[in-house]
Fold this protein.
Amino acid sequence: MQYRMDKNGNALSVLGFGMMRLKRRQDDTLDEQWAINTLRYAIDQGLNYVDTAYAYGDSERVTGLCLQDGYREKVTLASKLPVRMMTCAEDFDRILNEQLQRLQTDHIDYYLLHALNRETWEREVKQYRVLEQAEKAKQEGKIKYIGFSFHDNLDAFRQILNGYDQWDFCQIQLNYMDVDYQAGITGLKEAHEKGLAVIIMEPLRGGTLANVPSEVARLLPTEPVESALNFLWNMPEVTVVLSGMSEFDQVEQNLTYAHKAQAGMLSQQQVQQTVAAGETMRRSLSIPCTGCNYCNVCPQQIPIPELFALENQRMADGDNAGARQRYAQLGDKVAERCVGCGACVKQCPQTIDIPQKLAKLCSIYK
Ligand code: SF4
Ligand code: SF4
């Protein structure tokens, strides 16, 4: 395993375990035994960064189970405050205490303000004195380092990055398709220059970059997952790349790549090839959904990420009949159930106009 240092002298493994997309059983509950075995296996192989969040359903509780039997001490544990869910200043302590309980620990190492954007930065963070309270929690030893995860444009990123002088780290979405999207590579470099550790999320864009169309695969220097991860690790400004692994094979594969990950390991030509593949991928992707499931608030119970995944698959492989069949399996006229209330749009970190995309699906699959 390769390691990179954060500003506080901690050696973090270049591969982090994202606990958002853990394997599920048939009844849709998390497969606890799989999570315990798999995470502990990865830790035994040298992985030492584990990322969860209050808002990831049952993930914190399962992470707490995984980290029993001496594993908690072996990792840097990251979790996130659901800033958007706060309705008063007192929520900070209430939520943090609940997180410590769920995680069965007395402190969280990397504590993030979750999914900040211009709005939440101006509204909840200031209104509920979140940073002041985070500093107090740091003094009390309940958290070690303060950071934020981010979904908005570069201007908003700069506003947040420069709006507080004690950030230890940040977490941004970055992959070879999104080099100029949200914070992008420019944001990565600016955060690094300020001394922050930078944690990367969505390196495979919710799995989309693991399964690319042949015209994209042809452009990549190595197989798709290796190319996507190497593109990130090649940059010295990247500290940890998170991967939300839900199959044991993925863990094995990613560990193999992480053992070899070095900054500057790609030639200029390989970097250019990968960026060109990203441009082709962007053109071939109909809907930029990462499958994060944050839009799971729909009063009509529309399975939005599943619908978008099948439409992207149809665009990639041209299998119209197969897509139609899978569409029908999701329910009768499922996209047509949308009443345009907009609840999902407010949650989407990719700012997708979900009702408009669903209306398009209605006409394609009618
Ligand atoms: S806009 Fe449509 S898809 Fe979104 S939450 Fe409302 S009903 Fe559901
Ligand atoms: S539509 Fe947006 S919120 Fe929903 S899964 Fe896709 S990226 Fe996430």
User: Anything to note?
Assistant: The CA atoms of residues 286 and 315 lie 7 Å apart.
